[in-house]
Design a protein that fits this description.
Layout: E1 10-14, H1 16-26, H2 28-44, E2 55-59, E3 62-70, E4 74-82, E5 96-102, E6 108-113, H3 115-133, E7 140-144, H4 150-161, E8 165-169, H5 173-182, E9 189-192, H6 196-199, E10 205-208, E11 215-219, E12 229-232, E13 241-243, H7 245-250, E14 251-255, H8 258-264, E15 277-278, H9 279-283, E16 296-300, H10 305-318, E17 326-329, H11 340-354
Helix pairs in contact: 1-2, 2-3, 2-4, 2-10, 3-4
The structure holds nicotinamide-adenine-dinucleotide.
The site of nicotinamide-adenine-dinucleotide has 30 residues, from helix 3 and strand 11.
C-alpha cells in the first residue's frame, strides 16, 4: 500500500552546493568548453525547437522572466530574475532555477539551481559567439562591469577563444579588485583599469557586463576602433542598454533570437527592420560571420531559452557520471494512478498511527 513517495515520485535535484561540486569536479574550464559544445549542437538544430520571446513581468526595479522551449522530445524552462538594485541589500542581480522534462510523459527529469549555471552558460555562449565572430588570433579582452558574471566570462574566453589577458574596469573599484583576486590563479594576465577607455586599450574583444536599468552608454562611439568584437551582455531588457547607437550603426550585429532581442537587446534602440543575423545561421554555415578584419562585430546577447535547455541537458548527462544530485519527492505516485485521494486517506491513517 502506497502512502509515501513511490518509485516514480522522485525527480533528480541539483542544489547550489551540488552544482558547485559538479563544476569543480569536472573543472571550470572543461565544463565551459563542454557546455559550449552542447549549445553549438543545439544551435545547429535550431529549426527543431519551439521558440518564443521570454515571458516577462516587469516592475520599476527589475524583471522576472520565464524562458520555455522544446525540441519535440524534451521540454525545458528557466525562471530568472534581473534586479540591479538587489546588490545593495546583499542579494544577486540575477538568480535562476530550471526544469527539464520528458515531453512524451510530461514528467520532469531534472530540477536544478540555475544561478551559477546561468553564469556558466552565458559565458560559454559569449565565448562560442566570439569563436565565430572575433578577429583571428584574439588574445586580449577588456571587461567593463566586473560583477557576478565577470570571472565566468574571463574563464570562458580563455578556455574557448584562447584569451590570455583581461583588462578590468568597474565604476566600483572594490568590485574590480574582487574580480582580479578571483582570477589570480586562473593563468590569465589581469590588468586593473581606472576607466572604460583604459580597459579597452589594444584589445580585440570588448565585453560590456553592467547592470543599470537605464539607457546607459558604457561604450561611446569614439571609444571603439575598427576590427574589434563587442560582446554586449548587460543590455537585456526593455529600457536597459549599454552601447551607444552610433556604434550599433557601425557594427555587424549578431543576435540569438531576433524577435526577443528586438524587445530586450541593444537593438531596441534601432529601427525594427535593422539588419541583424541570428547566430545559429553562422554556426550552421547558412550565413557569414566576420567577413573583414576591419569589421566591428557585435554579439547583442540577451540570453535565450535554447541555451538554458542545452545547459540543463548537459547537467542531466553529467549527474549520471558525477554523484552530485539528490532525489526530490516532487510527484504524487499512488498505486492506482486514479486513486489520488486514496493515497491521501492511507497517509492520514499512517500519520494517526505514528502520532
Ligand atoms: P552585477 O550587479 O553583479 O554586476 C554589474 C556590475 O556593473 C556592478 O559591479 C556595477 O558596479 C557595474 N557597473 C554598473 N554601471 C557601470 C558602468 N557604467 N561602468 C562600469 N561598471 C558599471 O550583475 P551581473 O550578474 O554581473 O550581471 C551583469 C548584467 O548582465 C546584468 O544586466 C544582467 O541582467 C546581465 N546578464 C545577461 C545575461 C545574458 O544572457 N545576456 C545573462 C546574465 C546576466
Amino acid at each position: 500500500m502506497q502512502y509515501g513517495p513511490g518509485p516514480l515520485s522522485f525527480v533528480p535535484f541539483v542544489s547550489v552546493d551540488q552544482m558547485m561540486h559538479l563544476i569543480l569536479d569536472i573543472g571550470i574550464e572543461r565544463f565551459l568548453l563542454d557546455l559550449a559544445g552542447y549549445i553549438e549542437q543545439d544551435f545547429r538544430r535550431w529549426q527543431q525547437f519551439d521558440k518564443t520571446p521570454r515571458i516577462a513581468a516587469h516592475c520599476a526595479d527589475g524583471v522576472i522572466e520565464l524562458m520555455p522551449t522544446s525540441d519535440g522530445n524534451s521540454y525545458g524552462f528557466k525562471y530568472v530574475n534581473g534586479h540591479p538594485k538587489n546588490a545593495r541589500s546583499g542579494r544577486q542581480t540575477v538568480t535562476a532555477f530550471g526544469v527539464l522534462a520528458d515531453l512524451n510523459s510530461g514528467y520532469p527529469v531534472l530540477l536544478s539551481e540555475m544561478t551559477i549555471l546561468t553564469a556558466m552558460r552565458t559565458a560559454a555562449m559569449s565565448a562560442l559567439a566570439a569563436r565565430y565572430l572575433a578577429p583571428a588570433g584574439s588574445r586580449a579582452m577588456g571587461m567593463i562591469g566586473n560583477g557576478a558574471q565577470c570571472e565566468f566570462q574571463a574563464l570562458a574566453f580563455k578556455a574557448i577563444l584562447g584569451i590570455d589577458t583581461v583588462r578590468l574596469y568597474d565604476i566600483d573599484p572594490s568590485v574590480t579588485r574582487k574580480a582580479a583576486r578571483n582570477l589570480e590563479r586562473a593563468g590569465l594576465k589581469v590588468v586593473q583599469c581606472s576607466s572604460g577607455e583604459q580597459a579597452i586599450e589594444a584589445v580585440q574583444v570588448v565585453t560590456t557586463c553592467t547592470a543599470d536599468k537605464q539607457h546607459a552608454t558604457v561604450l561611446t562611439d569614439n571609444m571603439v576602433g575598427d576590427g574589434v568584437h563587442i560582446n554586449a551582455i548587460g543590455g537585456d531588457c526593455p529600457g536597459k542598454t549599454e552601447v551607444h547607437p552610433d556604434i550599433l550603426h557601425r557594427s555587424e550585429i549578431f543576435v540569438e533570437y531576433a524577435p526577443q532581442t528586438r524587445i530586450e537587446g541593444e537593438i531596441q534602440q534601432l529601427d525594427a527592420d535593422h539588419q541583424v543575423t541570428e547566430l545559429w545561421e553562422v554556426i550552421a554555415g547558412a550565413a557569414p560571420g566576420r567577413s573583414n578584419a576591419r569589421d566591428i562585430t557585435l554579439f547583442d546577447s540577451v540570453g535565450f531559452a535554447i541555451e538554458d535547455f542545452s545547459a540543463l541537458r548537459y547537467v542531466n548527462d553529467q549527474i549520471r557520471i558525477h554523484p552530485f544530485s539528490s532525489r526530490l519527492d516532487l510527484l504524487a505516485d499512488p498505486d492506482d494512478p486514479r486513486d489520488l485521494f486514496g493515497m491521501l486517506n492511507r497517509a492520514a491513517a499512517h500519520y494517526r498511527a505514528s502520532a
